[in-house]
Amino acid sequence: MTLGELDKILRSRLSIASFNDISLNGVQVACSTDRQISKVAVAVDACQASIDAAVEEGADMLFVHHGLFWGSPIAIDGIHYRRVKALLDADVALYACHLPLDADPVLGNNAQIAMTLGMREFDPFGLYHGQYIGFKGRLPFPMTCQEIAKLLGFSELYGMNILPFGKEEVETVGIISGGAADDVFQAMEEGLDCFVTGECRHELYHTLKESGMNMVCGGHYQSEVFGVKAVGRFLEKEYGIQTVFIDRKTAL
What we know:
The protein is built from nine helices and eleven strands. The protein is an alpha/beta fold. The chain folds into two domains: 95 residues, 3-Layer(aba) Sandwich (Udp-n-acetylmuramoylalanyl-d-glutamate--2,6- Diaminopimelate Ligase, Chain: A, domain 1); 119 residues, Udp-n-acetylmuramoylalanyl-d-glutamate--2,6- Diaminopimelate Ligase, Chain: A, domain 1. The strands form two sheets. The protein has a six-stranded mixed sheet with strand order 5-6-8-9-10-7, with helices on both faces. A five-stranded mixed sheet has the order 1-4-3-2-11, sandwiched between helices. Helix 2 packs parallel to helix 3. The radius of gyration is 19 Å and the shape is elongated. The two termini are 36 Å apart.
């Protein structure tokens, strides 16, 4: 399969054109036009460590949630130059998918979190620039915030914070991965018991305590491994493309 063919598949499957996103979603760095994509590395971030690991793994393409190009043009020098050069020297393509990979109802970070929690049904939640990127629903049985975090594999070593200021046993949750702490107010407005996201914010601590609201912050990185892993499984199952997950954790 060529990069162009794979790009068409991913654009269609993840509805990339439907999102107004600051990220340059899709191919960010191309490979040779005649190169066949038979192995794809998936990672959260297009950092040097992920790029180097993808090259070492013999991947033809690196698929990431956080790419190298955001909004305004950026000069290719310094760290940015070294990252792009490493991809070009190895003839490895870079593919990024940001908001579409948060919002996808099957492969997305938030849907995958919901399914990991055992939620069989969930509804769109969390408006961002006029689009829903998260999900809300009812847990299969009541859980504590600590049990939710454990099911999702969150660790304090990599940014997890739990603010257990609401009901001891949670029944309904809203989910938006990454840096969506302020969206806890949407969860409060909708009467949800808990909000699951990535990053926490100092300014919210007392507000949530005084409001009696639970929030599970898994760490930005830990909350966004779900989507890239799901895309890897999708490519293997549907197209026979070999994939490998590059795990380069951050403490945030």
